[in-house]
Amino acid sequence: MDLNLREIRPYGDTLSDGAMQMSFTLPLPTGPLAKEAALRFVRRLGLAEADVVHMAELGEGFTFFIVYGKTRLFIDATDITVTAVESDVWDRATCDEKIRELFGRKLRIVGACIGEDAHTVGIDAIMNMKGYAGHYGLERFSMIDAFNLGAQVEPETLLARALEKQADAVLVSQVVTQRDAHLQNLTRFVELAEAAGVRDRLVLIAGGPRLDHKLALELGYDAGFGRGTFAEHVASFIITHLARSRGSSGSKG
Amino acid sequence: MSLLGIDQTQVQRLRATADEITRSLAPLLRAHTTVTVERAVLRLLGVDGVDHHQVPLPNVVVNHLREKAGDGAAAAVCAAMLHTGASIGEVAEQVARGELDLHRLAQVPEDEVRALGHELAAEGLARIRANVREREERISRLPVRGQPWKYVIVATGNIHEDVIQARAAVRRGADIIAVIRTTGQSLLDYVPYGPTTEGFGGTYATQANFRIMRAALDEVAEETGHYVRLVNYASGLCMPEIVVMGAFERLDMMLNDSMYGILFRDINPVRTFVDQFFSRMVDAAAGIIINTGEDNYLTTADAVEAAHTVLASDFINESFGLAAGLRSDLLGLGHAFEIDPDLEDSFLLELSQALLLREVFPDSPLKYMPPTKHMSGDVFKGYLMNAMFNLSGIWSHQGIQLLGMLTEAMHTPFLQDRFLALQNADYVMNAARHIQDQVTFRPDSLVVRRAHEVLDKTGRLLEEVRGAGLLEAISAGWFADISRPADGGKGLLGVLKKSGRYFNPCKSVLAVQLGLEKEIDTWI
Ligand code: B12
């Protein structure tokens, strides 16, 4: 069995068979026409041998399909670069030690879930003492002063509080993404920081279940974290980033 | 017959403790009104519409009155009507145009003001009672299916798109349609006006949107032969107003919790407690089933550890609800299936809790929420978790089964998600329809032991809350792990001290309708 990294296809039960399943709805009344439309549609998606294995009426002229098919499309896995957060991840004790060593003082981190978004569980998971899934939050780190402002915080308020606390890093959470609410809020915050001339003084980190590092960079943040993030990921990144930038500018905290 | 061996005298003791807890807030409720209660009164008396800036006229009038709203907005408006001979709508419009100053009215005899207020309130109530009769008539013609009622949500942001999604769900067997509100509406201190097509993760609750969805559901019900219940959300800064609008448009259910706004939206506690009481009197008169939001506690607190806080809060919600005239069958008390699915015997713990709630509130249509917090992008596992939830629901005879969506972790439901959810519920509930009659539990079983443990802990918590006071308990973070001080939160400025002359004509008219004449003055 030769795996050709230049020609990667989905796997059903035989290498490179291209087997896939998918489900979707079409705005067509259930019947032979809808079924044929579904088939032609998935062929255009690249599923050469396709089969509508299930079709159900959803009412109001809509039909649900489950389709199996085999694609001939492939991807060259040798030609992919991934944008991921580049930093080691240290445990809490190590983070504390590094902060003491590198900066000789506590780091100040202010965070909130901004805009109309009322979801606090994510930012709490990162910041609050209790943490998440057995991983303590930033409040538990002895060399970190963490200020969690909670949810539905206006971007202006978050920035003002960050400056007042002389924060080293600001954490912005966004959970509601419908109609791109998160993009607007995240952008607004960066713009405010830039307008106030403080963007470069702060490590800006965005997080939430629909966010990743690449998107965060595009929006002008230093890092982005998605599902399954723990406080130590964030703390490690902040330490690495601060050490790098302050190292290069020659100042220490 | 008790499956769990629950001692009803213990339950009654807890109920009595809850009554003491809620009763201790009565002086606070009696002393205050809020801007939204006053606006709700104006709406009941017939004020509607917006000014040229799109500000709702009830807001215009109450803003204009400022502190004078502490006399009751109805007093000034009725006095102006007597004075000018204008209708209540005209008075509101004259205020909006700046043609009438309610602070500069010549004296009008107080008994005339009161008589007019009561007359208008009676007309408002008559509108609501007509809807109750219409609902009864429709249900007798188009009988609803047996419980658990299958409840699904629509949340496209566009009321016209919502209609398509709702009708499709009804054709596939949904009994209840809830239109989820847009992100952030609960913190608006006014209710938007007219049909809307722009919302984030939900659709604006407006009276026009209520009317559009009501008409669509009535129409499709004629085809399916089953009346469809319509739900919206009242909890928030405009709780009483949204209930009045819902009552006018024959909504059947309302999310109307006594503490949700405090805990999950950081709304001032006093405001919320005052608002919930009046709004629930309107619910009661309108035959609207309320839904409470205890399920949410388990999104911020652990479902195993915090199970008793859910039950304790249900007792408190029940007590407030009964005091405001809601019958037990109008109390959709909330709870949820939110235990970590990786925990061993998690299903047994869920079942235990669901059966316990059923035994503690035998006459209430419990609102059972599906797994949400532990739903992930693994939609296959999620679909299975929803099946377990449906099994627990049919086993414990829940009233309102809020169907889980396999895509819960990603987005508000797609059309097909709702269809799959209904199919899941139909299959499981049909396959296990009579399971409760068939299975008994050993007294030393985990299911029975856990139920007793939760009930005992609930009793202890209620006693602690009674000792500390409800406001203090909330401030100390005893519910949902969230702390909210009584003098903080949003909407505090809208809490007003009632003056000695305070007049709310709807209070007595509603009290008579609800048979609360004797107690009402001890509450509000
Ligand atoms: C709990 C919950 C609620 C609770 C929130 C309670 C609270 N105090 O937070 C309540 C009931 C209040 C709620 C309300 C609403 N919700 Co909600 N909610 C959820 C739910 C079930 C779980 C979210 C959660 O707590 N996850 C657990 C945490 C730990 O995960 P997390 O947030 O992803 O956080 C992790 C990472 O993302 C990351 N992270 C997050 N933030 C940050 C920040 C930084 C800086 C970093 C480094 C990392 C990081 O680290 C965390 C730990 O690993 C999800 C569905 C789901 N299963 O995801 C829906 C969900 C998020 N809600 C949703 C919606 C639409 C709403 C409402 C708008 C509904 C409505 N119309 O009323 C309202 C919101 C009102 C408002 N103003 O925001 C949608 C969002 C859809 C979308 N894509 O936009 C979801 C997906 C449900 C759905 N299918 O519709 N909700």
Question: Which structural traits does this protein have?
Answer:
A: 253 residues, alpha/beta, Rossmann fold, 2 domains, five-stranded parallel sheet, three-stranded antiparallel sheet, elongated, B: 524 residues, TIM Barrel, nine-stranded parallel sheet, two-stranded antiparallel sheet, 22 helices, globular, binds cobalamin
Brief write-up:
Chain A is α/β, with parallel strands linked by helices.
Architecture overview:
- The complex is a heterodimer of chains A (253) and B (524).
- Chain A has helices spanning 32-44, 92-103, 121-127, 155-164, 181-195, 213-218, 231-249, and strands spanning 19-26, 47-59, 62-71, 107-113, 144-148, 169-173, 203-207, 223-225.
- With 253 residues, chain A is of the alpha/beta class.
- Chain A folds into two domains: 19-77, D-lysine 5,6-aminomutase beta subunit KamE, N-terminal domain (Defensin A-like, 2-Layer Sandwich), CATH 3.30.30.60; 92-251, Rossmann fold (3-Layer(aba) Sandwich).
- In chain A, helix 2 packs parallel to helix 7 (231-249).
- Chain A starts with 18 loop residues before the first strand and ends with a helix.
- With 524 residues, chain B is of the alpha/beta class.
- Chain B folds into two domains: 27-122 and 497-523, no CATH class; 145-450, D-Lysine 5,6-aminomutase alpha subunit (TIM Barrel), CATH 3.20.20.
- Chain B has 22 helices and eleven strands.
- In chain B, the strands form two sheets. In chain B, strands 7-6-5-4-3-2-10-9-8 form a nine-stranded parallel sheet. A two-stranded antiparallel ribbon of chain B has the order 1-11.
- In chain B, strand 3, helix 9 (207-224) and strand 4 (229-233) form a beta-alpha-beta unit.
- The longest helix of chain B is centred in the first third of the chain and has 32 residues, at 110-141.
- The mean pLDDT of chain B is 97.
- The A-B interface holds A 23-25, 56, 58-60, 62, 64, 116-118, 120-121, 124, 150, 152, 176, 178-179, 181, 209, 227 and B 157, 164, 167-172, 183-184, 187, 200-201, 264-266, 299-300, 373, 376-377, 409, 411-412, 414-416, 419.
- Cobalamin (B12) sits between chains A (111, 116-123, 125-126, 132, 171-173, 175-178, 205, 207-210, 225-229, 234) and B (155, 180-181, 183-184, 201-202, 264, 296, 299-300, 372-373, 375, 408-412).
- Cobalamin sits between chains A (111, 116-123, 125-126, 132, 171-173, 175-178, 205, 207-210, 225-229, 234) and B (155, 180-181, 183-184, 201-202, 264, 296, 299-300, 372-373, 375, 408-412).
